[in-house]
């Protein structure tokens, strides 16, 4: 296990991002198939994001925050609070406190949630040893309708204004599109890929690279269409 974690941290240190597929992530995180199914099914209970300045109602989400303290394993959950991004990092929705429904306690306690938090912290700690971290957890569902695409990153290719970002796929349902792009600050594309299977993920050094995701459309207009992802961020306090 440590060699795999070493390889992820080394890759992020070397080129500012890494991607790991579902099988490798599944080996890292101890949990049953039923627990993984419960974790993924919690995305069906998200609430509509009412802060979209483009007027869209296509995004649903929940939010939680944590503190990670040097020398202390795990993450302490904090009191529920608003999410804030400066306008320089989110040109569409930044500059205001955005209050979202809290992540359910059972979702946080799920072994796969805890495992992904531990995985991301391991990378963050190796990049910046001895750091006290403010951590946010975002559950996102982006829905698409015929002639009305969903925008996973409506603000475009961007920095999140944090240190480390982990993005994990939970479900792609009847979708086309949704390619992840990783670029440098000059807009030069470093990678393009589609997170697809359950627990397919990427980890990024937010200072050194930007990321964005292309819009999604239904593959079959007659069926429901959605993209479920988990985003975890670590920011130095």
How would you sum up this structure, described in words?
This protein has 237 residues and is an alpha+beta fold. The protein has one domain: Jelly Rolls. It contains five helices and 13 strands. The chain has helices at 2-15, 22-28, 33-41, 105-109, 111-127, and strands spanning 17-20, 47-48, 59-68, 76-77, 133-143, 164-173, 175-177, 180-183, 189-193, 201-205, 210-213, 216-218, 226-236. The strands form three sheets. Strands 1, 2, 3, 4, 5, 6, 10 and 13 form an eight-stranded antiparallel beta sheet that branches. Strands 9-8-11 form a three-stranded antiparallel beta sheet, with no helix packed on it. The protein has a two-stranded antiparallel sheet with strand order 7-12. A hairpin with a 7-residue loop joins β3 and β4 (76-77). The longest helix is centred in the middle third of the chain and has 17 residues, at 111-127. It starts with a helix and ends with a strand. Mean pLDDT is 90; it is low at 89-94.
Write a concise keyword list for the protein shown above:
237 residues; globular; single chain; 5 helices; alpha+beta; Jelly Rolls
Give the fraction of residues assigned to helices: 10-25%
CATH topology: Jelly Rolls
Total domain modules? 1
Radius of gyration: 17 Å
Distance between the termini: 29 Å
In the CATH hierarchy, the architecture is Sandwich
Count all strands and give the number: 13
CATH level-1 class: Mainly Beta
General form: globular
The unreliable regions are 89-94
The portion of residues forming beta strands comes to 25-35%
Compressed to H and E, one letter per element, the order equals HEHHEEEHHEEEEEEEEE
């Amino acid at each position: 296990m440590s060699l795999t974690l070493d390889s992820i941290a080394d890759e992020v240190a070397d080129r500012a991002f890494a991607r790991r597929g579902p099988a490798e992530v599944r080996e890292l995180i101890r949990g049953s198939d039923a627990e993984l199914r419960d974790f993924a099914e919690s995305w069906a209970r998200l609430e509509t994001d009412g802060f979209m300045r483009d007027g869209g109602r296509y995004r649903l989400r929940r939010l939680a925050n944590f503190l990670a303290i040097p020398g202390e394993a795990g993450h302490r959950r904090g009191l529920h609070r608003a999410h804030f991004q400066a306008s320089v990092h989110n040109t569409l929705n930044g500059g205001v406190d955005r209050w979202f429904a809290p992540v359910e306690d059972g979702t946080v306690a799920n072994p796969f949630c805890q495992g992904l938090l531990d995985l991301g912290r391991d990378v963050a700690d190796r990049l910046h040893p001895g750091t006290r971290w403010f951590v946010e957890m975002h559950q996102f569902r982006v829905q698409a309708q015929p002639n009305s695409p969903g925008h996973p990153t409506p603000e475009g290719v961007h920095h999140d204004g944090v240190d480390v970002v982990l993005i994990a796929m939970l479900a792609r349902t009847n979708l086309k599109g949704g390619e992840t792009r990783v670029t440098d600050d000059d807009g030069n594309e470093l990678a393009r890929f589609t997170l697809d299977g359950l627990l397919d993920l990427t980890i990024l050094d937010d200072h050194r690279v930007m990321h964005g995701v292309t819009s999604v459309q239904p593959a079959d207009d007659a069926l429901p269409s959605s993209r479920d992802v988990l985003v975890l961020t670590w920011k130095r306090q």
